[in-house]
Design goal:
two-stranded antiparallel sheet, alpha+beta, ten-stranded antiparallel sheet, 19 helices
Amino acid sequence: MMKSTADDERALVKRSELSQLFHQSEKPREAFRIGGEAEKIGVHAPGGTPLAYEGSKGVERLFSYLVSERGWHPERETESGPIIALTRGAASITLEPGAQFELSGAPHEDVHAVDREMREHLVELQEVSREIGLTWLGVGFHPIATQADLPWVPKRRYSVMKRYLPERGARGLDMMRRTATVQANFDYSSEADAMKKVVVLSKLAPIIHAMTANSPFYEGRVSERKSERGDVWLHMDPSRSGLVPAVAGKKNPTYEDYVEWALDAGMFLFRRGDTFVLNTGQTFRDFLANGFEGHRATFSDWQLHVNTLFPEARLKRTIEMRACDMLPERLLGSVPALLTGIVYDETSLDLAAELAETLSVADLEAARPSLVTRGLRANVGSTSAQSLALRVLEIAEAGLRRRAKTDASGRDETVFLAPLAEIVQRGECPADELTRGLSPGARVPADDLIRRTHI
């Protein structure tokens, strides 16, 4: 749960106050930064037993090591509650419901720094991982575990989601406990800039997901899909996920359009001091109008609600692109590089907007199941996904070259795009590399799955 100020606890009076969250987050272009996020699935090798929360070989041991040896600071929801996150400077480590281990990196000026932080985090975990026999998997869906095999992280919001989300989509629990993603966060300078980026990223999301599809295993077998994670998101609460047609399908959307969409998603809970009040399923629109058990909606409640929405491109204090499966280490930097080249160069953003305008939301929605199953071998309307992906890469690469952000060796940010571009040029996605030599439906030994999918 986020820390709030006294001003955040004020009761909301006017509808116009809701869009203030976004107006307050606007930054001058020179202050734009990139934030990377990556969720890892931990298993004990050999055998593939999932990482637990408790115990000497669980998350508790990882946290203990990182606090005592690496300078991280523990975070609890309440003073006496269990540790559910770590912070160090502007970075944090958080837990998804099934103990997926997520690094939310600090804001950086370039992709070189984002990639370096992700790699240093993996190095930082090596000693304690060896101690407890833990291997980290760079894949978008747990390749081995059933739901019954996995733990529940003791975070209050998750106990609510556990009950509520399965009522709103057949794969709600899979989303919570068996998926993993690599994401990137970006700043915006104005309402027009924010909404242009949201529309572009939303409409390109199915293509970008097909480029990075990397979860072709399900409970020890080869799936018929390139991305089990992608299928999960096709069967999630539609009021809080997806492409948000009310925004992406509009010519010139505004903050208010996003607010209108967000108001109709069901809430999970809100907080008053150290007390959590469960109003699960009540829309924020109803909470704003009628309150709940004597409580009135506050600005802090609105911030929390916005952060419990899961569209492919999420507008909050930054714009978060959520479309990609988790990837192996050599491809981790490709996601922030691809997205940075699109949204942080004005020419590239304009070209991406032109491409996005040729893609109707209806065609994208119709194509999503095929993209999840066939990857870049699918079509969007009458256009091949591979040709669209190559155009996206072309736009991003040109944007990165114009940015001209170089490392100590003089390499620009396109160095991170090259490994992904090589795969896309073959008409493949990372899942094809994972399943080389395997047939759909084939049973794969756990240790072979770990070997194929480890970070």
